[in-house]
From TrEMBL:
The keyword Zinc applies. It catalyses: 3',5'-cyclic UMP + H2O = UMP + H(+); 3',5'-cyclic CMP + H2O = CMP + H(+). This is MBL fold metallo-hydrolase. Its cofactor is Zn(2+). Counteracts the endogenous Pycsar antiviral defense system. Phosphodiesterase that enables metal-dependent hydrolysis of host cyclic nucleotide Pycsar defense signals such as cCMP and cUMP. Keywords: Hydrolase, Metal-binding, Zinc. SMART domains: Lactamase_B. It holds the Pfam family Lactamase_B. SUPFAM superfamilies: Metallo-hydrolase/oxidoreductase.
Amino acid sequence: MLKIESFSLGPLQTNAYLLRGEDESKAVIIDPGMNPGALLRRIEGMEIEAILLTHAHFDHIGGVDEIRKRKGCPVYVHPLESEWLTTPKLNGSLLWPEVSGPIVTDPAEFDLAQGQKFTMIGHEFTVYHTPGHSPGSVSFLCGDDLFSGDCLFKMGVGRTDLPGGREADLYNSIRGTLFRFPDETKVYPGHGPRTTIGYERANNPYVS
């Protein structure tokens, strides 16, 4: 069984997820955001197999390098946003100087691709390319747990007015990909509380 802990990090309260399997000394982190102190304290003594990024906006990558350098773990991102890690203008950290200074990380070690499957912490993950909020946005499915980044929220959807965003792509990602999963699929979004595909399909006012 996948064990999931969430951490609300930084001024934008970005959800970072710490995932573990049966061996609780090993973990995967999804979207380590800004001000990752609480997450760093939690993973002390753990082996981090990878950092997985749903996308490379600054509020989702603020803790990447601190964790990577402390734990020696690789980073995975979709190639459409590989340059965003190294470029503050692309990752958005220059847009809100009152929220963040320029954020720059080292390049990712690995690319993510639509349909890619890999096994980490004893569990299989599948990558779904779900653009719209940003061109390289992806969602990760592990069993019936879906990590949707800023594509789908509880009673909301991701904004599309940032550079590279496209409304038509976002709704296609939600209706054409995410809403094809079973109702009981649990959704862990990039911000806000957990939900389910069935609940959003029936109640989300943006895509109902």
